[in-house]
Amino acid sequence: MEPLENEQVDSGQTKPAHTSLISGLPDDIALICLSRVPRRYHPLLKCVSKRWRVLVCSEEFHSYRRVHSLEESWIYALCKDKSEQICCYVLDPTASRRCWKLLQSPPPKCLKRKGMACEVLGKRFYLLGGCSWSEDAADEVYCYDASKNTWEEAAPLSTGRCYCVCEALHEKLYAIGGVVSNSGTPHSWDTYDQHTNSWSSHSDSKIVHDVQDSVVFEGKIYIRCCSFTTVPHASAILYEPSSETWQHVDADMASGWKGPAVVVDETLFVLDQSSGTRLMMWQHENRDWVPVGRLSPLLTRPPCRLVAIGKSIFIIGKGLSTVVIDLDNARNVGGALVSTSIPTLTSDVDVISCKLLSI
């Protein structure tokens, strides 16, 4: 680590002076100790000294926690409030009193945009594109650094997009489909490489503007397209990164994908919201969707989004109402899945998308 403080010498010049992270310990041992502090206390660590603040915000600290399986996943939700303004919330699922907290407001320029997408890459939460009645689909990208608690502008998209879907795969971001700007290429997607801090554009006739949901499953990106198509297999496509090609999803799988999806232990789950809320599971061997169970209408407030942490699926609906299903103990009582819930907000926000960010 680079020393951050200086000391005076007789010549009047300064030379670097090393100040230990923890007095009496080598810095590598101090890193081992500090990296084991639970994530909820990281803001307090940053208050101890400038060196601790720099360490907690560093890629080195994040990388160490990831490599040694010390990361903790928090849920970040992109929402829209009653005034149609963008806002973001965060939930620590391990807190003794679990509740959603309002995140620092995104940059003012994007607050009134519709059709923004979001995704997580590393320790950053990205907001992409969007549009408004007075502007075309935007190419702007903003990212929130969770360790620094700051927003900044990132490299712009190759193509302005609105109502696209976004996924992270193999340390890259993929912004796919949606309505593109007047100067953009239809039937296209953009890929972000964090090492070069740049986006590249690609096109394929299978990409449509009306994309509904997306999920990474079996190392591929699956996209659910418009629900009103008369051809079942055309309602979903998948991206194979090894060949960089798009393919239609087979009709058996596409026909049952009727809502937001999430993957737990390499098994795909979908929340069917067409009549109440029902959790479905894809059985790969039988090529069939089977019901896991229905959720109580008293707890869920559709439309909902899904995220998974370990064996637990979080079902997040209007007002950030949150229902948690533990798949290890999933059972039906009185026709409904047993679940726990997290208190809703006093304000009725609409949930656009939810993502996990691990530090």
TrEMBL record:
Q: Which residues form the signal peptide?
A: none
Alphabetical UniProt keywords: Kelch repeat, Repeat
Renumbered to this chain, region (Disordered) spans: 1-20
Question: Lipoprotein: present as a keyword of the record?
Answer: no
Domain annotation F-box: ranges: 25-65
Renumbered to this chain, the Polar residues biased-composition regions fall at 9-20
What's the protein called, per UniProt? F-box domain-containing protein
